[in-house]
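Chapter review: from sequence to fold.
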Amino acid sequence: MFSKAPYLNRNKRKSEECIGLPSSYPKPHPSFKVLFYIQRNHNTNTIIYTVNLDTNGLIDPYNPMEIKWIRFSDQGEVKELDYLQNKLVYGYEHSKVNDRCYQFRFNAKKKMIFFLSQDDTGKVAAYSRQNDRLIQISNFYVHADEVGIFPDVKFIEIYGTDVEKNKPFLQKIRL
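The token string follows.
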């Protein structure tokens, strides 16, 4: 009965056939405050993470990152995340390592650990250890099938720069 309902199988493809981030996807405008962004296979709308600084120019200890949608499908309109998007998926938990470094984990994937680090010039970037390499994160791509209420995530791609080698980095994590 349910298998005959085509709307339940939209975007359903074998994950082996999925190629990853389309080159045609728009990129958010770079700025001093942009840390990284997340794009998904469903549409070009993008979740952007920016740094919050306190009055001393240090990472805000209470709310280190602000998260917003850039609705590229709606002429680039910027919107807040709704409660469920923030609490279940794109939001994060953080803890202070020191005044210039915070550890954070995405609510949707708490096993993965990331860091915000601020250098002596005040620039803040997001980092992760991947394959025993320190990676400065630039963006993520999430491929999921829309089945039922919650998407079935097939894989995540992590894009960035290998800090030691100063070379582009890409890792595909199948889930």
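Two observations follow directly from the output. Residues 34-174 form one domain. The chain has one domain: 34-174.
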